[in-house]
Every structure is written in structure tokens, then in C-alpha cells.
Amino acid sequence: METFKYRELQHLLKSQIIKGVYKEGDLLPSENVLSSEHEMTRATVRQALQKMEDDGYIIKRKGKGSIVNLKKKRLGLLSFKGFSEVISHTDDKVNNQILEGPALQNWPEDFFYTLSEAESKVGCYFLHRLRLINQSPIMLEYTYIPNMDLPKFAETKLVNDSLFTTLALNFDIEIISMDQEVRAIKADEELAAFLEIGIGEPILHAYRKYGTSRKDLFVYSSLFFNTDSYAIGSYFQ
Questions:
Q1: Which residues contact 180 (CB under 8 A, 6 or more apart)?
Q2: CA distances from 157 to 98, 161, 171, 208, 214 (A)
């Protein structure tokens, strides 16, 4: 029973941080307060907070407590965190257009990463999105998630328009690593139309394979970046 309680508290605190109830640098309630409010032992509270720190939502300081610390999640668009997390700390107006999905389908032929036998058999959820900043198209996304123990994922509304946040809150899946290949290409007619640039103009194309906290579950993306108005980069802390 206590195991389920620790997960409930972890989910609640994570949700409150993502929704802005607790912001960067805020101090979470003490172990004693959380224990009293949620009627659980301090050991259970401590377990939930430790998992929050492991997942990169807080940092624990001796003599101070648990402090919201999301800096490592705020990386450039070539880093492994999601678009929504990257832009969340800016004043730019962000718009996400879902062009298709999430929808269950077969894997595309000649997929850009080698799939395991298990992945190939189960098919995937496909998500096609256009990401805009201040009304300018910045990124065109094609994402594929293996249909592995993700009940009703196609019916799931994205939390804060973020796939990674949805996976974290609804399925307890964290993105923990990324393999990436980036190259410069020229926009064909379809890409030019989506990104509102001229045919033949240079854009960045990235193939990504995200590792997750669930063994053998990976998320795959093919991303196209318009660099006309914004430099696309990354930083790590």
C-alpha cells in the first residue's frame, strides 16, 4: 500500500511543478508537512522526493529541503528535452498544431532506425505536429512510439501540448537519453509549404532515438527545423 502512496505523491508533485504551482527555485513543503497532509510515513515521502530528484524535477539541499530545479530540462532544440520544455522559460508565444494523430498504425517502410523484432510486431503510435514560435513555423515533427503497454494512448490528450510531459504524468515514463543524427538539407516542396520558406532553402533535419526509463521502450522522431528566424542549438548543464 505504501508503495502506491509514494507513487501518488510523486505524481501529484510532478504535476504541480509542470503546471506552475511550484516554480523554479521554490521550496517544496517539508517531509513533515507532506507526511501530515497526505497521511503517509516520512519514509514514503522521502522515497517520493528521491524519485523526483532522480527524474530531474527537484534538488535536495541539506538544511533547506527540496527545491524545484528544472534547469537541466531547459535545453536547446538539438538537446534531448522536448520542444515545450525548451520554450517554456521564454516569453515567446508558442503554438502547436497537431496535423495527425496520435494514431495507431504500422511502421513506415524503410524506417530511419533499425527496429527490434518486438517493436516491428506491435506497430506504433504516429504523431505529426507543426511547432510555431510567434506564429512562425520552426519545427515539423514526425514521431513514432512503439505500441508497448501504452493503454488508450491514441485517446490521450497531450498535457500542456507536450508528449514528454504526457508520458511522464500518465504513464510514468521519463526521457533519459537520446541518439541523434543531424544534417543540413534543402527543403522540398512539401517541407517548404509547412515551414513557409522557399523551395530549395537550407533547413536542418534530425533523426532521433530517445531512450526512456522503461526498458526496451524507445521514442523515434524525424524533425525538420526552419532556421530563418532562430538559431537552433543546444546547451548542457
A1: 78, 80, 206, 207, 208, 209
A2: 11, 8, 13, 23, 21
Q: What angle do CA 88, 145, 122 make, to 5 degrees?
A: 165
Residues 100-159: pLDDT tens digits? 989 999 999 999 999 999 999 999 999 999 998 878 888 999 999 999 999 989 998 888
CATH number at residue 55: 1.10.10.10
Q: Give the SS3 label for residue 165.
A: helix
Are 100 and 173 found together in one domain?
A: yes
> Considering just the CA atoms, what is the radius of gyration of the chain in Å?
19
Cα 73 versus chain centre, distance: 9
Distance, in Å, from the CA atom of 87 to the CA atom of 83, rounded to the nearest integer, reads 6
- What does pTM read for this prediction? 0.69
- The range of the structural domain enclosing residue 55 comes to 2-69
> What are residue 129's phi and psi, to 5 degrees?
-135, 155
User: Does residue 61 have a pLDDT over 70?
Assistant: yes
Cis? peptide before 108, omega within 30° of 0 = no
